[in-house]
Structure formats: structure tokens, C-alpha cells
Design a protein that fits this description.
The protein is α+β, with helices and mostly antiparallel strands and about 180 residues long. The protein has five helices and eight strands; from the N terminus they run E-E-H-H-E-E-E-H-E-H-E-H-E.
């Protein structure tokens, strides 16, 4: 991973055939709040619902600070010709020792099964390998989250039983499974 300059600045906008990945801003807080409170979206994430839009604004500020410190990056997903958030995708848990990161993604239910997240995941994987020089990207998901599992598999990930066996899951994470994609796959 590059250390002399910040490859995350200026913020990398990524154009996809059916969406664009942009920087999350405080103006996105109301829709981001809605996304993080959506029961269908968060069924398997373990994410606690925010109490207020103000709490989400603090979280967005933290996420953007992480970009400056090169510890994670999050994009909002928007449809072409709009700036309205319909989902998010991130690389986080940057691990310099292992040269790896974790991918995470959520999308409003009305946009599921349209290829939007598939394109976003593959673009972010490419960014993680080509720009951030990661060797491995992990995807952690709940064993029953078939949509996320299929998306990871169709994006080239494989279940990593060795990593699962080595992981020290918290009680909340006991039903998680880990998928990995290596740069050389």
C-alpha cells in the first residue's frame, strides 16, 4: 500500500455503466439515516440503527476523516445524472501487515438485482488491487445472506475456511462466514 502520498485524495470518483460512486457528504445524512434504519438492508449486518440524523452526520464525518488517514474509504452509490444516495460500498479494516482490506456494501431494496452492486463491487475490487495495491480483499457476511454470498462468489471470491477457523468471532459474529479474493486469482 502506498504510504508517501494519499491515493484516496483527491477523492476517487468511479463511473459505472449504471451508477456512479461518489464521496459521501453531510448532505447525504437523511438518506444515509434511512438506509441504515432499513430493516431489510440491515437484516444480516449487525449494524445498530442510528438514533438520529445528527448521529449519522457525526459518522459521515468520521468516515471522511478515515479517507484522510488512509484507514478506509466509502463511496455513496448514485444513479446516473443524480446525486441521491441509493447505497454505499467501502473498503475498510485496512491491514498494512497483511496488505489486505475488507469490502462492505449495502443497497436500498428497490435497487437489488439490477446489476448495480455487482458493477460497484468489481470496480472497488479493481481500485483496491490497482490503486491501493492490496493483495487480498475479504468479504464478511452472515451465513444466511444468500444475496451477498452470491455477489461475492460471482465477483471471484471464495469461502476461506482457514481464515474463519483462525478468526476470533464475537458472539454477534458467530454466524459470519468469510470470503476472500486474492490479487493473483
Amino acid at each position: 500500500m502506498q504510504t508517501t502520498n494519499n491515493p484516496l485524495l483527491p477523492f476517487p470518483v468511479i463511473a459505472l455503466p449504471n451508477a456512479t460512486l461518489l464521496q459521501l457528504t453531510l448532505e447525504d445524512a437523511p438518506v444515509f439515516f434511512e438506509l441504515r434504519c432499513n430493516t431489510d438492508v440491515n437484516k444480516y449486518t449487525g449494524i445498530s440503527k442510528p438514533a438520529s440524523i445528527a448521529e449519522v452526520e457525526i459518522f459521515i464525518t468520521k468516515l471522511n476523516n478515515n479517507i484522510e488517514t488512509q484507514t478506509s474509504i466509502i463511496w455513496k452509490i448514485v444513479l446516473p445524472e443524480t446525486t441521491t444516495l441509493i447505497g454505499t460500498i467501502c473498503l475498510w479494516n485496512f491491514n498494512k501487515a497483511n496488505n489486505s482490506a475488507e469490502i462492505g456494501f449495502v443497497l436500498m431494496p428497490q435497487f437489488w438485482r439490477q446489476g448495480i452492486m455487482f458493477n460497484a463491487v468489481n470496480a472497488v475490487i479493481k481500485f483496491g488491487f490497482d490503486v491501493l495495491d492490496f493483495q487480498t480483499i475479504e468479504g464478511w457476511t452472515h451465513q444466511q445472506n444468500i444475496g451477498a454470498i452470491n455477489l461475492l462468489i460471482h465477483s471471484g471470491f471464495s469461502r476461506d475456511y482457514a481464515l474463519e477457523n483462525a478468526a476470533q468471532f464475537t458472539p454477534e459474529e458467530k454466524d459470519m462466514c468469510i470470503y476472500t479474493l486474492n490479487r493473483n486469482n
